[in-house]
């Protein structure tokens, strides 16, 4: 179990920060409005509160990529090991196995972060300065920078993951409950082009039923706990696969095709 503290607070607003007062900056940007004027925020802004868009614009990266990416790689390996060791998954057609892994690995990975209690820090991504672009005339670099900036996760996307982790940690979920939750997430009948969607739906319903029974035995029939788990789990549908890849794996793997990597890892002898 590993935990890294968080430096970007969930209730911290970035509006008005990062303003530049130098004469050169003012001259170069005289035709552009100040960033702080486009966002009206209270000092104690909550990420889910309306009226502030800074978290949707602010690009972030890991503060300690080496340490966090190492933990992330371990979580991904454990996730794929869990999948490969499921007899019901191995009995599916190969095409369905591939589709389920490619479409469900990101939420399964976040579930793994929750189970391993992996926390992480993010900091604002630093973009090349306007003066540097002008002086060096980096047209080729600009194209790469624009691609990287497009894929770099926003603070809002990271907050969704963080809030999910906090919620699940507060529920003190057991190992067996995590296993059933992973089954519910993996066996997603809504993935397009599946050959056996009805069978996969039956597997998902079986995982839900077993989880409900387990909670009934261990938590005195607490139906609220079961409902809260499923409701919180549903928020993982909004987690961007691209954002997860860019945040946790791009720093160490570079521009990698995650689908190809996942298939290689799944076919390899794990553990």
Please give a quick description of this structure:
Helices cover about 60% and strands about 0% of the residues.
Q: What is the element layout, followed by pairings?
A:
Layout lengths: L22 H6 L25 H4 L2 E3 L2 H20 L2 H4 L3 H22 L6 E3 L5 H7 L2 H13 L3 H16 L4 H12 L10 H22 L4 H12 L6 H8 L1 H4 L4 H10 L4
Antiparallel strand pairs: 1-2
Order of helix and strand elements from N to C terminus: HHEHHHEHHHHHHHHH
Strand content: under 5%
Low-confidence stretches: 3-11, 16-21, 30-51
Tell me the span between the first and last alpha carbons.
Answer: 18 Å
Please give the order of strands in the largest beta sheet: 1-2
Write down how many β-strands occur, each being a DSSP E stretch of 2 or more residues. Answer: 2
Work out the radius of gyration.
21 Å
> Percentage of helical residues?
55-70%
Give the class from helix and strand content and strand pairing: mainly alpha
What's the overall average pLDDT, rounded?
81
Largest sheet: 2 strands, antiparallel
Q: Please report the number of helical segments.
A: 14
Could you characterize the architecture of this molecule?
This protein is mainly alpha-helical. Helix content is 59%, strand content 2%. A two-stranded antiparallel ribbon has the order 1-2. The protein is globular and about 65 Å long. The two termini are 18 Å apart.
């Amino acid at each position: 179990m590993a935990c890294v503290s968080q430096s970007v607070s969930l209730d911290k607003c970035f509006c008005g920060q990062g303003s530049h007062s130098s004469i050169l900056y003012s001259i170069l940007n005289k035709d552009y409005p100040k960033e702080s004027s486009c966002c009206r925020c209270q000092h104690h802004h909550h990420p889910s509160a309306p009226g502030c868009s800074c978290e949707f614009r602010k690009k972030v990266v890991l503060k300690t990529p080496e340490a966090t990416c190492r933990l992330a790689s371990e979580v991904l390996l454990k996730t794929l090991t869990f999948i490969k060791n499921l007899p019901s998954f191995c009995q599916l057609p190969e095409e369905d196995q591939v589709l389920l892994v490619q479409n469900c690995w990101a939420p399964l990975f976040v579930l793994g972060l929750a189970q391993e209690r992996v926390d992480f820090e993010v900091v604002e991504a630093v973009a090349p300065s306007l003066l540097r672009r002008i002086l060096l005339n980096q047209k080729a670099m600009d194209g790469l920078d624009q691609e990287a900036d497009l894929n770099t996760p926003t603070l809002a996307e990271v907050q969704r993951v963080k809030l999910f982790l906090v919620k699940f940690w507060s529920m003190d979920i057991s190992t067996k409950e995590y296993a059933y939750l992973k089954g519910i997430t993996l066996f997603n009948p809504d993935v397009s082009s599946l050959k056996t969607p009805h069978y996969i739906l039956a597997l998902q319903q079986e995982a839900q039923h077993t989880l409900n029974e387990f909670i009934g035995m261990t938590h005195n029939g607490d139906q609220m706990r079961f409902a809260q788990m499923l409701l919180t789990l549903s928020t993982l549908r909004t987690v961007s696969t691209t954002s997860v890849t860019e945040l946790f794996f791009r720093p160490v793997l570079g521009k990698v095709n995650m689908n190809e990597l996942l298939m290689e890892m799944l076919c390899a002898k794990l553990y």
